[in-house]
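quick one, 320 residues, struct below
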Amino acid sequence: MKLSPVLVDEIRSASRTMVRELGFMRSTLAATDYSPSAVHALLETDAQGGMTAARLVQILGLEKSSVSRMLGKLIEAGELQEADDGPDGRLKHLVLTPQGQALVAKIHAFGRMQVTTALQHLNPSQQQTVAQGLAAYAQALKQCRSGAVEASPGSIQIASGYRPGVIGRVAEMHAAFYASHAGFGQFFESQVATGFAEFAGRLNDPVNNVWVAIQNERIVGSVSIDGQDLGNNEAHLRWFILDEGCRGGGVGRKLLGEAVAFCDRMGFSAIQLWTFKGLDAARRLYDAFGFELVHEAEGKQWGSLVTEQQFTRQKTAYPS
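---
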């Protein structure tokens, strides 16, 4: 996949800014007297409940001699101590001393203060986007270093049926996305919330269902099949949306796959969906699942002029 040079440079610029603002350009980090690598060594030792020098070499990506010198200084300063790990005592296991534990607690407090202060400048949706995007990017960087080729969707699971909060999250994700991509405002969000709330009241009918993507117990994507509103034994695919930080990782394909498979099982004669021109990633998914563009026209019913599109997937397009 070819990436836009502009996108790559934007990420590089943001990464440099983060390195500077978090203090990694300084000789010490997190209001301690220690270097960034030493602070990381203490944090990893705390997270693992103990650590070996060899493991730290792997985690930090530093030379063995550099890690050895750094650990010697931390032991001498009273932050770490060695404990025998194994019956022959040849493998030394590093653990935090009480002094080291107190220091790590201060480091965590400092780091949480930095993050909390920064996130207060963002709205809740942006905060979640930052968390999801950074986690995905960090995992991708880690896979590059380890030689892994493909990224996995991470801890995202697909679940079906109503769950608490789904109505508000579906409306929120639509409002956030279409405000930035089409200029839609309060009227659009209200329509989505009203429409989905009405649909949720009909989920007890077997021809209706909703699938959601869940990450860290939070809804980050959804798609629904309304088997009643169109009639003629046709299914209406509705409210297909992903949170900003989850796009491009295969989650949308999984959601759409669940919805289409459901329609196949229910024997609908066709699946209809309405969307807007210019949503290229979604369009590629629709094409992959056998949807065809059957109508498009300009409209302003949502408050901004957009080109509305209708896609259809006939039963004859279903795999045998």
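Confidence is low (pLDDT under 50) at residues 148-153.
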